[in-house]
């Protein structure tokens, strides 16, 4: 987890997680870059200690690669660095990573097989899914990933969850609609994270549940 709040004027950022076991194979992260800030949510296939060790290694490599590479290049470097470990354990990693330019809200993202990131509008009346056709890290040797662009407008909320949240719903879009509704009654990013995790706490889930929220001030 990040060691300290982002503390960037105009943005409210929070995250949290509920592991299925004593440790989690999910992680979330944020840190500043020279021209903005980066947020990440990743999910290592599997649960328990092995997944947690892989997640810790991936987080460290991605932090180091992100400062000196484009977002897509950083993921390629992570994939190359983690290839032996992922092959040995038969694991793969879904990941959503985004870079935001604070002044404009311009958002660049790479989604490696994750598919669980949405932007909720300022009135919480609609949500748009941030889509990609790219595969998880470790699914295919020497794979590549493409970056995509969007804008986080004033008052909008970027919400990313891990797939453990899908245990709570019959259909994936039901999770999106619930997130939209919760966003409308949550005063802060941390409130929304807490509401999401509270839903998980009242159900029997078999996978880690993690949430990351970025809210831009109106």
UniProtKB/TrEMBL annotation:
The record's InterPro entries line, in alphabetical order, gives: Bact_Sigma-Reg, PPM-type-like_dom_sf, PPM-type_phosphatase-like_dom
Ranges in a coiled coil? none
Q: Which residues form the PPM-type phosphatase domain?
A: 8-216
User: Which SMART domains has this protein been placed in?
Assistant: PP2C_SIG
**Single GO molecular function:** phosphatase activity
Could you list this entry's UniProt keywords, alphabetically sorted: Hydrolase
Q: Which domain of life is it from?
A: Bacteria
User: Where does the signal sequence lie?
Assistant: none
Question: Which Pfam family, giving just one, matches this sequence?
Answer: SpoIIE
Name the record gives this protein: PPM-type phosphatase domain-containing protein
């Amino acid at each position: 987890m990040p060691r300290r709040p982002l503390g960037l004027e105009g943005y409210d950022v929070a995250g949290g997680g509920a592991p299925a076991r004593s440790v989690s194979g999910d992680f979330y992260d944020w840190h500043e870059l020279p021209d903005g800030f980066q947020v990440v949510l990743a999910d290592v296939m599997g649960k328990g200690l092995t997944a947690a060790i892989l997640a810790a290694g991936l987080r460290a490599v991605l932090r180091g690669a992100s400062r000196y590479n484009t977002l897509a290049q950083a993921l390629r470097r992570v994939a190359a660095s983690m290839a032996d470990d992922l092959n040995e354990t038969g694991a793969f990693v879904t990941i959503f990573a985004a870079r935001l330019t604070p002044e404009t809200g311009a958002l660049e993202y790479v989604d490696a097989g994750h598919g669980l990131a949405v932007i909720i509008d300022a009135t919480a009346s609609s949500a748009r899914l941030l889509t990609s056709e790219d595969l998880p890290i470790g699914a295919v040797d020497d794979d590549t990933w493409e970056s995509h662009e969007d804008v986080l407008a004033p008052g909008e909320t970027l919400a990313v969850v891990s797939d453990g949240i899908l245990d709570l719903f019959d259909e994936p879009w039901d999770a999106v609609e619930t997130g939209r509704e919760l966003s409308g009654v949550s005063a802060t990013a941390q409130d929304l994270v807490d509401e999401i995790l509270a839903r998980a706490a009242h159900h029997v889930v078999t996978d880690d549940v993690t949430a990351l929220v970025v809210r831009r001030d109106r």
